[in-house]
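Dock iron/sulfur cluster; give full complex structure.
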Amino acid sequence: MTLRVAELFRSLQGEGPSAGTPAHFLRLQGCDVGCRWCDTKYTWDASHGRDCTIAEAFGELRALGAAPLLVVTGGEPLTRPGVDRLLTAALGQWPRVEVETSGSAPPPLEHARLHYMWSPKLPGVTEHWAGTWAHAARFMGDPRTTVKIVVAEGDDSAALEQIRAHELPRDRVMLMPEGLTDAAVRARALTLAELCLREGLRLSPRLHVWLWGAKRGV
Ligand code: SF4
């Protein structure tokens, strides 16, 4: 089977609980969620990108150097055909596999070394926001899932409302500042840091923006 791939690269994981870890990134092409602040709009059109087999993708990633972590991202990887086979194959080759997903499709499998970074959307981010919460119980039923909510300016209350409505365990929730520049991320992070301290939530960095700005392949 072939995957529709947007890009393959090696970098440091910039977000979530593994931030700072050297990682291979397999970014699948295609997303229908339509977030207004999306930083990977080039992945939306499923006809863009290129076809490659799972073996070819893994071979290209390995040729970039070693990493203990594979991050499967997008686009929206869980709505892409064959993602279950991709994840099964990846678990045979990497000690840890992370999937970055909006949650618009349910998790296709559970495994002791497979970790979902579930990033549901807040009202106002996209008209499809409610669908990204539709499988909340499935994601939270896997103890390895971390919730990562991108919080733009003005959305702090909306984030807390959703956390309460879905009774999310706060030690599994990370708030991540929205922003495409170091200055914007830093300003948002300072506000979110106060919110995290007050509410018992965690703060996710955006290391790749801090280090390299709004660039592809990092
Ligand atoms: S789900 Fe991810 S890739 Fe899709 S629009 Fe939202 S931020 Fe962009």
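Observed: The pocket of iron/sulfur cluster is lined by residues 31, 33-35, 38, 40, 43, 74-76, 102 (CB under 6 Å).
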